[in-house]
Amino acid sequence: MILDEPGTFLQRTPPAWLGTGLRAGGAWLGAAGVPLPVLNPERAMLLHVRRTEGE
């Protein structure tokens, strides 16, 4: 996805984590979740989630 392409998002600004990435524990993710950007209907987003040990 090209984040700075005009017409990508329906909202004014995408979530802050989208530009920097997100690191969170499973319990937090299970309780809070991840705010996803509101995309235009013709757009899609694929998230890559990775488990890390000892963090």
**What gross morphology would you assign?**
elongated
Name the structural class. mainly alpha
Indicate the percent of residues in helices.
10-25%
The largest β sheet comes out as: none
Count of beta strands = 0
Order of helices and strands: HH
Oligomer state equals single chain
* Strand percent estimate: under 5%
The helix tally amounts to 2
N-to-C CA distance: 29 Å
What Rg is obtained from the alpha carbons, in whole angstroms?
A: 13 Å
Q: How much is the average pLDDT?
A: 76
Low-confidence stretches: none
What does the model show?
By secondary structure, the chain is mainly alpha-helical. It is built from two helices and no strands. The longest helix is centred in the middle third of the chain and has 7 residues, at 26-32. It is elongated and about 40 Å long. The model has no long low-confidence stretch (mean pLDDT 76).
